[in-house]
Amino acid sequence: MKLILLGPPGAGKGTQAKMLTERFGIPQISTGDILRGAVKDATPMGMKAKAYMDAGALVPDDVVVGIVQERLQQDDCGSGFILDGFPRTVPQADALKVTLQDLGKDLDAVISLEVDTEALVERLTGRRTCCNCGRGFHVKFDPPVSPGVCNACGGELIQREDDQEETIRKRLEVYREQTSPLIQYYREEGLLVEVDGMQDMNRVQDQILSVLRAA
Ligand code: AP5
């Protein structure tokens, strides 16, 4: 299965990608996670990306395209992958098309998760992530058993720096301007399937699974 999860910040791409990864044993390729890892490790790429990420802007195309090209060639992508947060611009989508052609691979589907703006803001302001194992929670929709503590490993739950309301609204504007044209792009390629992301997480997952069965 070779899949793109498309959708605005907070649509549930990461949540759904993790559920699919567990089910199918194929990797989630999240450019956001890879970039946050590089920032944490203070690599040259991370230091370049940090200012863009903190401002809610997109990291330059050449940086993220390079990341994904390298990642897709790794052995664990042999039987499939889930792209989460990539592509995000038309030039990224064009570069992905060329990369997949070179690798002799075709996408099965592009799933666009549709969620109302105010629900996105509520999801992102309430999101918490384990600083140890990376598991995601939500203070209202998916709360940990003990506040501030990860159910899985006992690590501390933290809030992402770009999950402050002002930055969230900037990220949503960037999505509308630079990423939403990809909906039409993949519709024209005959790959786009829209899924109602306002539903409960498990219902969203069921709907994605039925899309994949039909693909
Ligand atoms: P990235 O990490 O990709 O962030 P994003 O796209 O803004 O998406 P999020 O991770 O915020 O949201 P999500 O859709 O994964 O939602 P989640 O499942 O966590 O990118 C961060 C930054 O990196 C960018 O701003 C940019 O600077 C840079 N970057 C990354 N990729 C790039 C690229 N390709 N090009 C250039 N720059 C790039 O869910 C959110 C919350 O809601 C969670 O708490 C969850 O528990 C909850 N939730 C999920 N589903 C539901 C549901 N159905 N009902 C209720 N709550 C739900």
Q: Topology of this structure?
A:
Elements: E1 2-6, H1 13-24, E2 28-30, H2 31-40, H3 44-54, H4 61-72, E3 81-84, H5 90-103, E4 109-114, H6 117-125, E5 127-130, E6 136-138, E7 157-158, H7 165-179, H8 181-188, E8 192-196, H9 201-214
Parallel strand pairs: 1-3, 1-4, 2-3, 4-8
Antiparallel strand pairs: 5-6, 5-7
Helix pairs in contact: 2-3, 4-5, 6-7
Q: Descriptors for this entry?
A:
single chain, 215 residues, alpha/beta, Rossmann fold, 5-stranded parallel beta sheet, 3-stranded antiparallel beta sheet, 49% helix, binds BIS(adenosine)-5'-pentaphosphate
Architecture overview:
This protein has one domain (2-116, 179-214): 3-Layer(aba) Sandwich (Rossmann fold). Strands 2-3-1-4-8 form a five-stranded parallel beta sheet, with helices on both faces. Strands 6-5-7 form a three-stranded antiparallel beta sheet. Helix 2 (31-40) crosses helix 3 and helix 6 crosses helix 7. It has helices at residues 13-24, 31-40, 44-54, 61-72, 90-103, 117-125, 165-179, 181-188, 201-214; strands at 2-6, 28-30, 81-84, 109-114, 127-130, 136-138, 157-158, 192-196. Helices cover 49% and strands 15% of the residues. With 215 residues, the chain is an alpha/beta fold. The longest helix has 15 residues, at 165-179. BIS(adenosine)-5'-pentaphosphate binds at residues 7, 9-15, 31-32, 35, 52-53, 56-59, 64, 85-86, 88, 92, 123-124, 127, 136, 138, 141-142, 162, 171, 197, 200-201, 204.
